[in-house]
Write a structure and sequence with these properties.
The protein is 52% helix and 7% strand. By secondary structure, it is of the alpha+beta class. A hairpin with a 2-residue loop joins strand 1 and strand 2. The longest helix has 32 residues, at 288-319.
Length: 496
């Protein structure tokens, strides 16, 4: 028995030594880094006391200028944390072929909704990106534009009713905005009228929130899957809960069967996916599972990102009424030139609106970081800073967007940063809310379109101002990987 205990103690000691050795990687390489916490690395406070960006922002500030990157650890996994803008450009654009993989967990066989364009890597991603790129052209956006406007007009009606009934016209606006984007994407991506603007308990929205926040396993397993996605895939783990998977797969199967049986055509994303499903030629079409995965990520990527961006924009416009008034004047003048119709062309004529949204995405990048994986060893010109094959890479969008070298007084909200002249003064890759290069967000046109339409019609009809409940300094949700206001955004909403 004593021999068994001794052997067990040796095994435990060896495992502990191996784990600690893994966490000495950056010290052995001579790369600047903070001493990691064991066993969580840099993630000790994540989801407990800090959001992901709050964990990494101090690291960016501390080590910027010390070299092209510094080292961090996700659990015991060493990770390259890029600090140098030139290296960022090489990773995202110039040498993209070596960094095209995100290294995000996906398991399209056991967890088919994860087999989407955002999560896939390698040849599968390449094939799918080529198939889907034509679905996000400006022509296809025009195709879906009337659907977005129809939902936005209903949004204005509901906002008016809610503000009228609310004490002192004070509303928590982020929930309503999430229901607006859910109705837009429910219609455009799934072809269903979920009517969540009128029904706050609509299952479509509840499942969307679950998909963003809840996971099949606990926090520790979830962190393991995010830190070691390949190993998690080999272990056949799944990330989405079964009810979320069954709900979205069920909707897509029913929609596909109904439309094909009844030859239904609509101006939406689902119609475009169905046309691709029935394409002739080997490997050209999409399976029902692939359609479901793309519709799912289209919903997930546009649902909270656009609504959160709109919420942050209205928060800043309420804080600075002179910017709000200037934007409202532009909206009214442009609509007047277009016969008071909210057309695709009218929205694109609203240049100051674009500046306001761009500055909102600068100050509040909803996805605060970009992830990549090195396909092969990458020489940065200094052997100490060699990026080894299969090394995870993190680029902190939030850090760049709040770097005073690129944006003086970064905590102030100033749409003038995004005049054409000011944009041209800055180096490329200093504004990354949608990523950059060949793997940027494919749906950025759609996301901006629904945010522009929603904001234009809201500001035409309502004035937004701070209320006693409005936080003067926002705090952020620690559970959500996206940047979102922890306690919502309360504003006074007055009809004009």
């Amino acid at each position: 028995m004593s021999i068994f205990i001794a052997l067990l103690a040796i095994v435990i000691a060896l495992i502990f030594y191996f784990l600690k050795y893994q966490q000495s990687y950056w010290r052995r390489r001579g790369v600047p880094h903070d001493e990691p916490s064991f066993p969580m690395g840099a993630l000790k406070e994540w989801r407990h006391t800090k959001s992901f960006y709050e964990v990494l922002a101090p690291v960016y500030e501390k080590f910027k200028g010390t070299g092209p990157f510094c080292g961090i650890y996700f659990l015991i996994q060493p990770v390259v944390f890029v600090l140098d803008l030139e290296l960022i450009k090489k990773i995202l654009i110039k040498d993209f072929s070596n960094f095209q993989e995100r290294g995000v967990f996906h398991n399209e066989f056991e967890d088919p909704l994860t087999g989407n364009l955002f999560q896939l890597d390698g040849p599968k991603w390449n094939v799918l990106r080529k198939k889907l790129s034509p679905t996000f052209t400006s022509g296809k956006m025009k195709f879906m534009f009337p659907t977005v406007v129809a939902v936005a007009q209903e949004f204005v009606k509901v906002m008016g009713e809610k503000s009228k009934d609310a004490p002192d016209n004070i509303l928590e606006i982020t929930d309503l905005q999430a229901r607006y984007t859910a109705d837009v994407i429910g219609s455009c991506a799934f072809g269903i009228e979920c009517n969540s603007l009128r029904n706050p308990n609509a299952e479509f929205v509840k499942m969307g929130r679950k998909a963003l926040i809840e996971r099949r396993h606990g926090k520790l397993v979830d962190t393991f899957m995010e830190s070691y996605p390949r190993l998690a895939r080999k272990l056949n783990l799944c990330s989405l809960t079964k009810d979320v998977h069954d709900f979205y797969m069920g909707i897509v199967r029913e929609t596909v069967e109904y439309r094909e049986r009844n030859e239904v055509k609509r101006n939406d994303f689902m119609n475009i996916l169905l046309e691709m499903k029935n394409k002739n030629g080997e490997g050209d079409g999409l399976t029902v599972e692939e359609i479901a995965a793309q519709a799912f990520i289209f919903f997930l990527a546009g649902f909270e990102t656009s609504s959160t961006t709109m919420g942050f924009a209205l928060y800043e416009l309420a804080r600075q009424p002179e910017i709000q008034d200037r934007l409202r004047r532009e909206i009214n003048e442009v609509l007047e030139r277009h016969n008071n119709a909210c057309t695709y062309e009218a929205i694109h004529d609203m240049k100051y609106l674009e500046q306001v949204v761009s500055e909102t995405l600068r100050k509040y990048p909803v996805l605060p970081w970009v992830e990549r994986i090195a396909k092969a060893d990458y020489d940065t010109g200094d052997s100490r800073y060699l990026i080894e094959k299969n090394m995870p890479i993190v680029i902190l969008t939030y850090g760049i967007h709040h770097d005073p070298e690129y944006y003086p007084e970064p905590d102030s909200f100033d749409p003038e940063r995004f005049t054409e002249e000011e944009i041209n003064k800055r180096p490329s890759c200093t504004w990354l809310p949608f990523g950059d290069g060949p793997r940027n967000c494919i749906g950025l046109r759609f996301g901006k379109m629904q945010a522009f339409v929603g904001l234009a019609l809201l500001l035409k009809n309502f004035k937004f101002s701070f209320a006693p409940q409005t936080q003067t300094k926002l705090t952020y949700n620690k559970e959500n990987v996206l940047l979102s206001a922890e306690h919502g955004i309360h504003l006074r909403v007055e009809a004009l």
